[in-house]
């Protein structure tokens, strides 16, 4: 049996890798192994619980006030032991985190082939998103197989002279995850969410946590959110606040006390997905929500200056609102007040997949190792 080890350490990675770990485990030719770094301990564990995953190896690296350097060095040292003990034939990493980069680098040091899930995303600004853009590019230099969500991601890799034979267009695994988490009649464990006026008011779901938004950009975003709440009585804001002390300080200083604004702790993956499904609009600086919300028919305003997911902008499911207070307010209020503007975004076709990305990735791995004679067809 092929020993395929999936490595991840943060909540977004876990949400997108969990269905893949399960799909690999369903294949008789594959022994599916799971190694977590716990770069984000509490938020990672909530996803493992939702998907009923038990890691084969847990580096448990998280420390208070950790830095990019401590995360990367601890991952590298921990991965040495994990690879020596589990002896994988291939290591899968996801996306763009410090865990992703360190996992790929450690695999390279041990001469283990690397598969990069969600490969080929680019902004071509190495400091934005930071450090994710460089993590992606560095993993591209190491990887052997590239699992791209979209055609555009493949084009980015081809421009960088990556060999086409190792590139597969699969769709995004987050769509696979949504198929298992969003349910009719779902009841939230966060009791406050069970009593929101769904259908009576327009629920705006907010997340904001990225490093490049620290400081003045985050202040502008928080003040814009407050203004939106103050000026629109038919709106309720729900903001699961990231655990980062920097984010929490900004929320407390500029947003707390705004009318009809619910500041809650981060949610488990299934709660977040079901809350998103009942929302009217999503405002976020997250990458994953730009893919998840459109799959549920929810428009997204991106609270960043750029996005590595231009397919969603081109499709019309996502718009860049930036970090200017007036622009964020103007774009949000247009969608709140204009049925036509809202319908154009809500009805746009999501470009990120059909829910079978994990199947395509597993098929590609079997083909790569000669266990299948048929190269899987790309998602179109």
Care to describe what's here?
Residues 23-365 form the UDP-N-acetylglucosamine 2-epimerase domain. With 380 residues, this protein is of the alpha/beta class. The chain has two domains: 2-172 and 353-369, 3-Layer(aba) Sandwich (Rossmann fold), CATH 3.40.50.2000; 191-347, Glycogen Phosphorylase B (Rossmann fold, 3-Layer(aba) Sandwich), CATH 3.40.50. It has 15 helices and 13 strands. The protein has helices at residues 11-25, 41-50, 68-86, 98-109, 132-142, 151-159, 173-181, 216-231, 245-254, 269-278, 288-295, 310-315, 325-337, 339-346, 357-368, and strands at 2-8, 30-36, 57-58, 90-94, 114-117, 145-148, 167-169, 202-207, 235-240, 261-264, 281-284, 300-302, 318-320. β1, α1 (11-25) and β2 form a beta-alpha-beta unit. It starts with a strand and ends in a 12-residue tail after the last helix. The model has no long low-confidence stretch (mean pLDDT 95).
Short description:
It comes from Oscillibacter hominis. The chain has 380 residues and is an alpha/beta fold.
């Amino acid at each position: 049996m092929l020993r395929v080890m999936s490595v991840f350490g943060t909540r977004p990675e876990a949400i997108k890798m969990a269905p893949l770990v399960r799909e690999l485990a369903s294949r008789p030719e594959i022994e599916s192994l799971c190694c977590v770094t716990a770069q984000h301990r509490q938020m990672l564990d909530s996803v493992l619980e939702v998907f009923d995953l038990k890691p084969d190896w847990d580096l448990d690296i998280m420390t208070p006030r950790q830095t990019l350097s401590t995360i990367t060095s601890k991952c590298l040292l921990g991965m040495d032991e994990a690879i020596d003990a589990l002896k994988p034939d291939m290591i899968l990493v996801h996306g763009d985190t410090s865990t992703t980069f360190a996992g790929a680098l450690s695999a390279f040091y041990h001469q283990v082939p690397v598969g990069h899930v969600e490969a080929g995303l680019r902004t071509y600004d190495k400091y934005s998103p930071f450090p994710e853009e460089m993590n992606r590019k560095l993993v591209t230099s190491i990887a052997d197989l590239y699992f791209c969500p979209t055609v555009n991601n493949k084009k980015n890799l081809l421009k960088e002279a990556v060999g086409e034979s190792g590139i597969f267009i699969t769709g995004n695994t987050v769509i696979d995850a949504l198929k298992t988490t969003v349910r009719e009649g779902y009841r939230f464990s966060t009791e406050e969410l069970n009593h929101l006026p769904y259908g009576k008011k327009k629920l705006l779901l907010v997340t904001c946590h990225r490093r490049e938004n620290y400081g003045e950009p985050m202040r502008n975003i928080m003040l814009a959110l407050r203004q939106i709440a103050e000026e629109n009585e038919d709106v309720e804001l729900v903001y699961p606040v990231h655990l980062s002390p920097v984010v929490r300080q900004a929320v407390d200083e500029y947003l707390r006390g705004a009318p009809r604004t619910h500041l809650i702790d981060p949610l488990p993956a299934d709660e977040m997905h079901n809350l998103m499904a009942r929302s009217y609009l999503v405002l976020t600086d997250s990458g994953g929500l730009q893919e998840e919300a459109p799959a549920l028919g929810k428009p997204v305003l991106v609270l960043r200056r750029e996005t590595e997911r231009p397919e969603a902008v081109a499709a019309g499911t996502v718009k860049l609102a930036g970090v200017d207070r007036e622009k964020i307010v103007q774009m949000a209020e247009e969608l709140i007040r204009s049925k036509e503007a809202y319908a154009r975004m809500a009805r746009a076709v999501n470009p990120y997949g059909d829910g079978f990305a994990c199947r395509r990735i597993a098929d590609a791995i079997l083909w790569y190792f000669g266990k299948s004679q048929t190269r899987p067809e790309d998602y179109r």
